[in-house]
């Protein structure tokens, strides 16, 4: 009796799916939400850093710790953990989730840790070079910033239905491109105002927070 062989399994046929890629406006809104969260968490950790610095000074007054460096360093650590952790775990930060978007690879797959780190590095590059990497989203056909180009990511609607491996047809909102000059003006304002407020608050108010924490602890110790 001749054994019958099963026909070889045919590879799944790729389907073409239309997916919505988000432009500058919606992504700016998500970034604003994330900025508020990161700044709040950074201040919490900055207060903790101030307390730790004061406690260390109590027992080693001849070699006080660099409290200012601890405050700025804690803000950086919060930012790294927040963004990289969110992209690698869920594909979206809190701000992106609230506004119905997620970050994926061009085939729809989730970001791994390496891709999330690359995207964060791209974030820094996009921001440090006068935030031009973010403004690039306005003019790019795929609505990719420089950080998206570096990490090979796209930002799509979390409601889009697709299977990993489908061929994507990217659909962008033309209204976002029509407002490009308005986005350029807004980019310039944010370029000047936002970083100035963030860094000046950390640098100027850092010592104030340190003294405030020291006063609270001294009051507790005096009881």
Give descriptors for this structure:
223 residues; mainly alpha; two-stranded antiparallel ribbon; 8 helices; 4 strands; elongated
Structure description:
This protein is mainly alpha-helical and 223 residues long. The protein has one domain. Helix 1 packs across helix 2.
| Integer tally of domains | 1
User: From the helix content, strand content and strand pairing, which structural class follows?
Assistant: mainly alpha
Report the order of strands and helices. Answer: EHHHEHHHEEHH
Number of strands: 4
Mean pLDDT: 78
Dominant shape: elongated
Distance between the termini: 95 Å
Short description:
With 223 residues, the protein is mainly alpha-helical.
């Amino acid at each position: 009796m001749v054994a019958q062989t099963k026909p070889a399994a045919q590879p799944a046929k790729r389907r073409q799916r239309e997916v919505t890629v988000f432009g500058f406006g919606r992504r700016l809104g998500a970034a604003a939400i994330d900025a508020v969260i990161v700044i709040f968490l950074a201040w919490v950790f900055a207060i903790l850093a101030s307390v730790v610095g004061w406690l260390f000074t109590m027992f080693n007054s001849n070699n006080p710790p660099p409290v200012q460096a601890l405050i700025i360093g804690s803000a950086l650590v919060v930012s790294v953990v927040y963004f990289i952790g969110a992209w690698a775990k869920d594909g979206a930060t809190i701000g992106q989730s609230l506004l119905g978007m997620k970050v994926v690879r061009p085939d729809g797959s989730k970001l791994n840790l390496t891709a999330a780190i690359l995207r964060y590095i791209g974030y820094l590059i996009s921001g440090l070079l006068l935030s031009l990497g973010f403004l690039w989203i306005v003019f790019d056909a795929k609505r990719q910033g420089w950080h998206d180009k570096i990490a090979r990511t796209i930002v799509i609607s979390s409601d889009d239905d697709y299977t990993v491996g489908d061929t994507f047809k990217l659909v962008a909102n033309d209204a976002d491109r029509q407002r490009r000059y308005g986005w350029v003006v807004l980019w310039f304002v944010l370029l000047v105002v936002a970083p100035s407020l963030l860094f000046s608050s950390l640098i100027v108010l850092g010592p104030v927070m340190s003294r405030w924490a020291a006063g609270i602890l001294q009051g507790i110790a005096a009881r």
